[in-house]
Amino acid sequence: MNRLNFYILTLSCLSVLLAACGTSSPKLSSNSAAVSANQINLVEDPFTRFIQLAEKADSAELTINYYFEAALLKYSLQERDIALQILEDHVVPYSHPNQLPALLLIADIYSENDQAFYALDALFEAKSLPQASSLQNRIKISQKRVIALEALGSWNEVVKERISLSALLPTEELDNNEKHLWVAIQNLTDSEVTDLQGSQDQILEGWLYLSTVLRSKTATLGSKKILYDQWKTSTPYHPAALNPPEDFTVLADLETVKLTNIGIALPMTGRLSVVSQAIIDGLLAAYYSEDNIKKPQLTFINTSNYESVDAILQEAQAKSLDIIIGPLRKNLVAQLSQNDLPFPVIALNQIENSTFKENLHYFSLSSEDDIRELILFAKQEGATRAAILGLTEKWALRQAEEFKKVAQQEGIEILDTIAYENKPSERATAVKKLLLVNESQKRKQQIQKLLDLPVDSIDRSRLDLDYVYFIGHLDDAKQIRPSLDFYFAEDIPMLASNTINNTSLDSKDKAQDAERILFTEVPALVKTNAIMRRIEKKVSGNILKRLQAMGADAYILANRYWIFHRLPNAKMSANTGLLTMDEHGIFHKRPELVLYKSGKLTNAKNKDIFATETGSFATAE
What we know:
Layout: H1 12-21, H2 46-56, H3 60-76, H4 80-90, H5 99-112, H6 116-127, H7 135-152, H8 155-166, H9 174-186, H10 190-196, H11 202-215, H12 221-234, H13 239-242, H14 246-255, E1 261-266, H15 273-289, E2 297-302, H16 309-318, E3 323-325, H17 330-336, E4 345-347, E5 360-362, H18 367-379, E6 385-391, H19 394-409, E7 413-420, H20 424-434, H21 437-451, E8 467-471, H22 474-486, E9 494-496, H23 511-514, E10 517-521, H24 523-526, H25 530-533, H26 542-566, E11 572-573, E12 578-581, E13 587-590, E14 592-597, E15 600-603, H27 606-609
Parallel strand pairs: 1-2, 1-3, 3-4, 4-5, 6-7, 6-8, 8-9, 9-10
Antiparallel strand pairs: 10-14, 11-12, 12-13, 14-15
Helix pairs in contact: 1-2, 2-3, 3-4, 4-5, 5-6, 5-7, 6-7, 7-8, 8-9, 12-14, 15-26, 18-19
């Protein structure tokens, strides 16, 4: 992928000036001195003056210095694209003292342009230069890598980089790095924490242990504080013992907040009763798994018996409830936003354009969270051009719009959107249309007509597509993947949300047809835990299992929601994913990324899906 394709110079004078000196390489001279802006008699337009001086300089060193000054000037004026063009064309290609500063500036520009993947490429190149071995430059490169990796959401790499950085930084800068390290560790999914454990780095192991303490789904806040105090006593010189993470400093206060009566407001009769029962099963599993002798009372309210949310709130007040979990129906959730709530509510659905409302929280299995995780995963590998292929059913069309929304926010280009009816002929036509196979066939026909001879060629797919976002079920996907391979598109990954995992593979399935399809899944379905084992035989379908996980998390949130108010950056490892809360009171989940291998569900790695470009994720030394 050519990075410069993103940038087109708009100043005609610059195009003319740069073209003149772009036809030959600078001639190196070892006796030339660097020239800064202070030594130049600037005339009217300083940028034009720098370019003129670069053209007329009698040595390569002066030429490069003038171009570097011109780039710095444009960068200071927020004209990043022009600065980038100059640096990549006239500074970086040549061995020179400004080569390293130029690459660092290029990394800054790409990061500021939300193209962190290319920033990492520049930093990888910078790291290979002789000047990069000095302590000061090692710190600069590492700090800029952290910024790019955080932007990509590559939290396991962020953790590794910050651990390495802690060995380089002066003492006065360590505290800030450790605070950001803790945030990165809290952003890890459970599987990523497991991957990092056993690193032989005692400092990292200490941080990871504390994270696992906080991640416990059954331990009380008080028991977590006790575990931290015991660890602190046994490891007194660890950075987290000397400066405790803020999470542990507030646990003692939060433990004093005791709930006595939790309300569960769900439609327990009617068409949503099956959904409600799955949620209740999960909630009760979490309730009875909690390490707490004195549990709050649970009060159930059947919302099917009420026409309005006002009546539900009046019933809740009459029963002296501390908090409500529910309602589920979207119309009741919408009514909640119009009411002054006398106690906290965790609604189990979400409305469009949700805004902050005192005491109102939203928790649902939103596919937007799944989509964002997939897009960020792909962006880590420089994949920014996608196509959407999905069914014509309403839920699939709705998910396609959700993908477009998140893609726009994340700077992803949608090259095509194709919806098809779930029929073999329609599916085959959709794949050919997606891959532009018909255009390949038309070109073949035109050549045959022109030459008046038969042409022996193979239909091949387009080359401008980084991945396909698929919206359908597993049976559909097992037909789509081989079709892509047939048209030599085996290198084009398929990504999907957990709606693809509506059923499990059985012995009759061809495992290879489902492999290389990356999708999201709630952690409870990837790796069972003590809570979910209590109810694992109650349902068989994955949709209901996810609802059970949602119910379990709803109960945990009811007991710990105030942590998110006390600690805005708080994270909670849960059954549906790593939970956070935004400024609107919406809980978001970070799911696991998985695929099938030999018929078994397993956590995915970058190399399983994308061919990693050299250098982008090289771990810091």
